Amino acid sequence: MRIFLLHVIAILWKDIRYELRSKQTWLGMGMFALLVLVIFNFTFDLRVDNVSAVAPGVLWIAFIFASLLGLGRTLAAEREQNSMDRLLLCPVDRKAIYLAKLLGNLLFIGVVEIVALPIYTLLFNVPLPASLLLIVLLGTLGIAAIGTLFSVMAAATRARELLLPILVFPLIVPVVISVVRATQQLMVPTVNEPPWIGLLIAFDVIFLSVSMLTFQYVIEE
Amino acid sequence: MMLYYNHVDKKGKKSTVNNLLTVDTLGEMPAIEIRQLKKSFGLKPILRSVDLTLHQGQRMALLGANGAGKTTILRILAGLIKPSAGTVSVLGLDIIHDAQQIRRCVGFVGHQSYLYQELTIVENLLFFARMYTVPHAQERVHELVRRVGLERRAHERVGALSRGQVQRVALSRALLHTPHLLLLDEPDTGLDREGSELIDALLAEHIALGGSILFTTHLLERVLQQSDRIVILGSGRVIYNRETASLDYDELQRAYREVAN
Description:
Radius of gyration of chain B: 18 Å
Mean pLDDT of chain A: 87
Oligomer: heterodimer
Structural class of chain B: alpha/beta
Helix content of chain A: over 70%
Shape of chain A: globular
Low-confidence stretches of chain B: 1-24
Low-confidence stretches of chain A: none
Distance between the termini of chain B: 41 Å
Number of domains of chain A: 1
Strand content of chain A: under 5%
């Protein structure tokens, strides 16, 4: 277990160092998320009565699209030489590789979200309750869990930039519905709504377990 | 025989790197044993039926025209791809069932460097040292950097190095965990005379300590100096398998041409 954790930390640290040097993922994702928020802010005729219906959707569109940009990029270091062979050569549990890549993706997406959230509240004039952070964390975990698995799969193909969203979007639909509705619930609490956060946790557990178990077969020949 | 991956600490306490194989488990197992190995990519067969044995402490040169299947054999032994049929064992371990254990005792230098371009030489080697849980990683990394003559460039990005320097770092990466078996795919690529000499010295040391080497090359002169056995592949099969001691350059060249034709 100790060696497993050391491997996770080593791969994660390597990815962070790599990203800090190339600065490709964070800057691209951050700019993209901010642009989506600004463009939607101008596009919609926002009023007090419709902001709660529009704002959660806009926030999650920005996060999901930015996440997919980032998910494609976080494997850039591995793809540099067209393969994951550098990691596959090492006697490392494949689950450790998955976990490190997942944590890396969570971190990269998380930083972008932390920057984008205050701008979102400013542009859409909505509050930023602490429980929104929990929803953002759970939503991001669900997207990253599936996205990490499929970005490795897509990395082996030529049309990876096109393939990744096509593979990931249909699978994250339950997460998207849950996070948008949970965010709406925060703004305008309504009765008789399903427990969206509970559902979100359930989706996360399922996605994480399935991805962890199948990663080895995806990554190896 | 002294096992290459045995580690002796400053107090003289003996241990095995990564708690791997011990002297007892190794015994006199062949370093590599391949039986009726077949490999196809899609419908295209690359290896049709390969039988090979490399004994511990030996150096084997794998020759053959481009596309003969040399790299495919090395990649199978390194655990990067799986055989389509046949059995492959490394130090008595099965390539399918004991893949992780095999990875611990194999060092691989391929056509690609398997290094991260944005990281420095030391960062790269330290990262791989952690992946292989190398004891005393810092010392080992600096020792190897010094041995391959790159001390002054130790903190430069790999992406800024020349092809030959990258090859030196790649060999250091393969030697980091003191593997028992070295798999080298055209290790001379890009190396100047000094680089070749440095690497020859490291490989000689590896053999002196009981390690084994399987390498591919197209340089027939080097094959005679650097190997104990020569195997020539053709059409996905072993066509020629002889001890180097009983060969001269002309005979080797003749055999190589016949197979290539």
